[in-house]
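Student:
Attend to each token:
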Amino acid sequence: MAHGSFSFRKLIALSASMLVVTSAAAQSSYPSKPITLVVGFSAGSSIDLVARIIGDKLSKSLGQSVIVENKAGAGGNIAAGYVARAPKDGYTLLVAANSLAVSSALYKNLNFDASKDFQAVAYIGISPVDLKVNARLGINSLDELIKFGKAHPNKLNYGSSGVGGTPHMATVLFEQVTGVKMTHIPYKGGGDALSALMGGQVDVLINPILGSANTDKIKTLAITGDQRSSLSPNVPTFKELGYGKYDIGVYYGIVGPAGMPKDAVDKLNASVRSILADPSVVSTLTEKQGVVLKAESPQAFQDYLDRDIQRWKTIVKETGTSLD
């Protein structure tokens, strides 16, 4: 009887250990099916380009298809809400950008909470923005622009890709830092705003960096970031010019629904960090697009997102920015 009882206990222990091994094996098999990277903006946008480059490399790294799905609209909020409500299994992810933090500050009735509903997975990188003016203004430096803007409040106007977009909020921050007041003219997209700048319909545009610094129609006065961009080496940084507090860029990263399995987060993060060291990715994103790549831990990216969310809530409150 004692011998039988001992054997029974051994059997239970063996069964339990097999369950643990089976569970661990199931977790380590991630991913076992295709992964979807959701993008909150249209195909051809800068974030879409980043998503497709990273997605293609992830597919090869993980041995599973990685599908990029565009769910454009509402400044990225449709995509964010979709991913926040997706299964927490690591197969539906969001390629996040500034809009995640900005929307939290601007919108009161979102169907997601950017501070609680997402798990940071991997930081990809950040693109500087530059400030351009229409050449007809005859303004040749940042100091000249600020001096003119202060002397003539709201006489200058600026374009953007739409209310709440990065160019809009980057200019709101510029006004806060410099004390300049300008008139906002929103367009349907960044391309339309750039065309308006070149055509003289707007005076100023702060936008993700473009390869050409100056033309006969526009002049680039300054760029954000810690150092000059190889795409525009003759353009000084805001920091060089004494405006170090003007610190903003267009960042890219991957997040998933809060509660994702840790092994999935860690595996994705390790893969992305490896991809960011790939010479072809460095060439495409850094040398051709001006993206400063960031290979950091999930927690480091989470901390960055948390700080950015709080930062934009403060900026929106202090400047009285609204969606009207």
